[in-house]
Amino acid sequence: MMDDIENGSMGPYQDRPRTFPDMRTKPYTPLVFRLIMGLNTRVLFILMLFAFGIIFYVGAKTSPIIVFVFSVCIASFLLSIYLTKWVLAKDEGPPEMAQISYAIRDGAEGFFRTQYGTISKMALLLAVVILGIYLFRNTTPQQESAGIGSTASAFITVIAFLLGALCSGIAGYVGMWVSVRANVRVSSAARRSAREALQVAVRAGGFSALIVVGMAVLGVAVLYATFYVWLGVDSPGSMKVTDLPLLLVGYGFGASFVALFAQLGGGIYTKAADVGADLVGKVEQGIPEDDPRNPAVIADLVGDNVGDCAARGADLFESIAAEIISAMILGGTMAQQCKIEDPSGFILFPLVVHSFDLVISSVGIFSIRSTREVGKPVEDPMKVLEKGYSVTIVLAVLTFGASTRWLLYTEQAPSAWLNFALCGLVGIITSYIFVWISKYYTDYKHQPVRTLALASSTGHGTNIIAGVSLGLESTALPVLVISVAIISAFWLGQTSGLVDEAGKPTGGLFGTAVATMGMLSTAAYVLTMDMFGPIADNAGGIVEMSQQPESVREITDVLDAVGNTTKATTKGFAIGSAALASFLLFSAYMDEVAAFAHLPFKEVDIAIPEVFVGGLLGSMLIFLFSAWACSAVGRTAQEVVNEVRRQFIERPGIMDYKEKPDYGRCVAIVASASLREMIKPGALAIISPIAVGFVFRILGHYTGHPLLGAKVVAAMLMFATVSGILMALFLNTAGGAWDNAKKYIETGAYGGKGSDCHKAAVTGDTVGDPFKDTAGPSIHVLIKMLATITLVMAPVFL
C-alpha cells in the first residue's frame, strides 16, 4: 500500500469517487504482542494464571494494600478488554470509509515503530550513563545500613528506569492502537445518530485511559513490592520501608524520558502536516478541511493519532507515575519524622487513590449511554461529557474521604486524616476549576473565543494580536488557583497535628502531595475526554474524504469542535497537576541531596549570584526549548507546503478529481523530518541540568561551597517550573482559542467558510497549531522531567 501511495498509483480518480482502492496492508504488531497471540489459548491461560499468582504472592508478602491495588488494576484491564470488544464490534461503514482508515492506520503504526525504535536506542544509551554514574557514587547512610552498595543501587535504578520507559512506550502504543481503529467506527456511527457516535468515541478513549492509568499504578506497585521482598525490607539489618520509595525514582525518569520525545516527535508530525494542509488547501486553494484533493490530508489524519493519542497516553502515564513516586517519598519521610508505628498507609496512599480513580472513572465512562434520536436536534456533546465528569467528581470526593480514613488515620493525631481529606478536596476543586477556566477561554460558546473570531473580520494581523492577548490573559486565573491550592493544602497539612520529635509540625508538604493526588483522582476520565478529541477529529476527516452526506459531516463537526475544547481543558488540567507534582519532586530532590551530602539542605538563597544565574538558566531553558519546538514545526511545515504546491501545479487535474494526489510523499516528509527535529530540543532538556550542575559543582569545590552545584540546579528547576507553567498555559490556551475561533466562523458566523474572515482565522489557527500541540504539551512534560532527572542525577551535583 505505501508503495502505491508513494508513487501516486492508486488507479483512476473518477468524478467525486465514493470508493477508494484497497489500501490495506498487513498490520504491524509489536513483537511482544505477536508472541502472546501466537501461543495456544490454554498455554496462554496457564501462563497468565502463573503470572497473576506470582504478582499476588509478592503482594501478599508486602502488604494487604498492595493486594487491593493489584486486584483493582487487573479488574480495570478486564473492563478495558470489554470496552475494546464493544468498540470493535461496531461496523466500519461503507468501503470508502474503511479504505481511508486503513491508510491512516498504516501511516500511524509505521511512524510509531520508527519513532519508538529511535527512542529505545536513546533510552539504552542513557541507561548505560546512569549505570556508570551510580557505580562510582556514594551511597546514602540508609543504604549503607541496609547493606545496599553502589553496584546494587546502580542496577536497581537502571532497572527502574528501563521499566518506566517500557511501560510509557506501551501506554503510547495503546493510545494509538485504539484511536486508529475507533475513528472509522465513530464515522460510521455518525451516519445513524450523534449520541451513538459520541458513545463510541468516549468508550474508545475510555479503553485507552483505563490501560494507561492501570499500567502506571500497577508498574509502581509491582516495582515497590518486588524491591520490598527482594531486599527484605523492615527485617533486622535491612532497609526501612520509609526509605524504599527513593529506589523508584528511576521509574519516573524513564517514563518522563519517553513521554518527552513522544510528545516532541508526535507534536512536530501532527502540526507540520496540519499547517501545510491548511495553508495551501484552505487559504490558497479554498477547499474544505480534510478534502480528498489535498495531498497532505492523510499525513494530517495520521498526525492526530501519533501526536494527540500516542503522545498523550505516554504523557499522562508519566504524570501519574511521577506524582505517585513523589508522594510516596514525602509520605515515607513524614512518617519517619513523626515516628508513626505503621508508615505503610502513608506510603501506599497514592496507589490506593489511583486505584479508586480506575473505579470511579469507569462509572463515569459508562454513564454516557447511547439513545438514538433520529430527527431530533443534536444534543450538545459537551454537556453529556460534563455530566459524566460531574458523576466522577462526586464519586472521587467520597472515595478520597474513605481512603484517607482507611490509610491516614493514626493514634498520634486522630483528626489528621480529616485534614488530609480536605487537602484532597482542595485538589479535586482545583482540577474542576482548571477544567472550567480552560473551557471558558477555548470554547466558542463563551465570549473570549467569539471576540477572537470578531477580530478576524478586520484581517490576519488583528486575529494574531487578539489571540496572543487572550493567551497572555489566560495565565492569570490558573496561577491564582494554583497559588491558593498550594497554600491551602500546605496549611491544612501543617495543622493536621502530626509533629516530629522536636514538636515541629511536619505535615505541610505531605498535604500538598495529597492535594496533587486529589487533582489527579479523576485522571482516567480526564484522559478519556482527551482521547475523545483526536478520535472525533479523525472521524470528521474520514467523513469528509469519503464524501458522506452533509448531515453526517455536521455531526462530526460538532464532535470535532467539542474535541478541541476537551483537548484544551485536559491540557490545562495537566499543567495544573504538573505544577503541583513539580513542587513535590523539588522537595524530594532537596531531601535526597541532604541524604547524599550528609548536610542539611532546607532552602535555596537566590541572593547568591551563582544560584541566581541558575534560575536565569532555568527560565532561558523554557524559552529556548519552546523556540526550537516551534521552529521544528515551521521548518517541516515549509517542506509540506512546498510539496503540496508542487503537486497542485504539476497535477492540475487534482482539483477536478481527475488525478490522484500523492498522499505518501507528504507522509514521508513529515515522518522523516519529525524524527530528525525532535532530537535537538530533547537533548537540550536532558543535558542542560546535568551540565549546569556539574560545572557549578566543580566551581563550588574550588570556592569551598560543597552544595553549590545542587543549589544552582535547585534554582534552575524552580525558575524553569514557574516559567514553564506560564509558558505552557499561554501556548495551550492561545492555540486552542485560535482553533475554535476558526470552528465558530465555519458554523456560518462572519461570512462562514471561504470568507476573508475565515482565511484570517485559518492563519491564526496555523500559528496556534505548534503552540497547543507541540511546544505547550512538551513544556509541561519537560518541567516534570527536569524534576525527575535531578532526582536521579543528584550524585553528579555533589
UniProtKB/TrEMBL annotation:
Top enzyme class: translocase
Subcellular localization(s) per the UniProt record: Endomembrane system
Region (Disordered): 1-21
Record carries keyword Cell membrane: no
NCBIfam families, alphabetized: PRK00733.2-1, PRK00733.3-5, V_PPase
PANTHER family reported for this sequence: K(+)-INSENSITIVE PYROPHOSPHATE-ENERGIZED PROTON PUMP
Protein name: H(+)-exporting diphosphatase
Organism expressing this protein natively: Opuntia streptacantha
